[in-house]
Amino acid sequence: LERCENEQNNSSPEHVLKQLNDYKGQYELESDDELWLVIDRDRWTDAMLSHVAKECAQDDYLYVAMSNPCFELWLLLHLIDATLLTPENRRKSKNADPYLKIRLRQEMGSYHESSYDAQMLVEHVEDAIERAKTLDVNSTDRWPQTLGTRIYLLVESVMNRTN
Questions:
Q1: Residue 14 Cα distances to 46, 84, 128, 129, angstroms
Q2: 7-16 contacts: CB < 8 A, separation 24 or more?
């Protein structure tokens, strides 16, 4: 969903959930419509995430796909088996990129979150799905508590592979 200019940087899960709820109020959704909230775990509190996950679980249209620690993990899973990585995504210095962005840049040759070669990754989406499933050791938890991503659930839904 697009954000107005004064809200460009307001990407908190609570704010995005509000946007999705506003969208639901504006449009008549069909029974097979899905609205997905894609979240990075890395900087949000457990209380905020729990509130958002609970609200989504109680709504037939809302779904959560969280990555721990961040979305770049999902992208990396297209290229490498990330089971040896740690969930930490620390910066070596205040102005440095987090580790997973650096690692992704190494694997892809170049990477910036607003500009990267998605086609290079699409060719390996099946690998990413399987690797993400392997990392998802506690799939009944609302989100990955350790290194993991649930983006594969969104991708499987788009590919019409849901259970």
A1: 12, 32, 28, 27
A2: 12/44, 12/48, 13/37, 13/39, 13/44, 13/48, 13/49, 13/52, 14/48, 14/51, 14/52
The confidence score (pLDDT) of residue 87 equals: 62
Mean residue pLDDT of the chain comes to 89
The tokens of 47 are what?
């209380």
- In tens, the pLDDT along 74-109 reads 999 999 998 777 666 667 777 778 888 989 999 999
* 3-state SS string for 106-124: HHHCCCECCECCHHHHHCC
For the chain, how far is it from start to end, CA to CA, in angstroms? 26
**pLDDT tens, residue by residue, 26-46:** 999 999 999 999 999 878 899
Count of H helices and E strands in the chain?
7, 3
Buried b (16+ CB within 10 A) or exposed e, 30-49: eeeeebbbbbbbbebeeeeb
